[in-house]
Amino acid sequence: MAKFSAPDEEDLHYVQYEASKEPTYLPSIRQLISKDLSEPYSIYVYRYFLHQWGELCFMAIYLFSWINRPALDAENKLVGVVVSKLEPHRGAQLRGYIAMLAVREEYRSKGIATKLARMTIDAMIEQDADEIALETEVTNTPAMKLYERLGFLRSKRLHRYYLNGNAAFRFLLYIKENAALANQPMWDDEDISGVEYG
Hints:
The chain is α+β, with helices and mostly antiparallel strands. It is built from six helices and seven strands; from the N terminus they run E-H-H-E-E-E-H-E-H-E-E-H-H. Helix content is about 30%, strand content about 25%.
């Protein structure tokens, strides 16, 4: 199999998930996410998000062949994906949630994750989100830097959150002022242990 270099901007296309193309998209999404994220997700987890909030899922596809429209096939491959949801939280606010964000290792540091995150954030804002939440492993420094650059704030440390035993930080991005006021973090000694600032 031939090796390919990192994508040029014109070869990389960002597309919104389409439910009608699940047989094509879902296997590639599962393969990419299962390789890079620490949690093993069943097909039902993917369908839970994609069937209800497919409009919040975006993909980066690298086109190896020139075609009129980006598609996943033998010639083109998925290099990044973001999967999200948006629903009421605590009875009033609309909280967006970035559930999964993954980029193939050989395509990282090209701005793909940032672009995908911004696309899903913008889509949630268009749907009137008050805030957006996510979790990431405390050992995943690149992810934490990415989210902080996008304006997310660490709100809580979740001990032994993942199946591998690692802790997580919950990050929040406040879109509306009322969301920030309603969610003033209530820190305790356990929550802030090990948190580094600066």
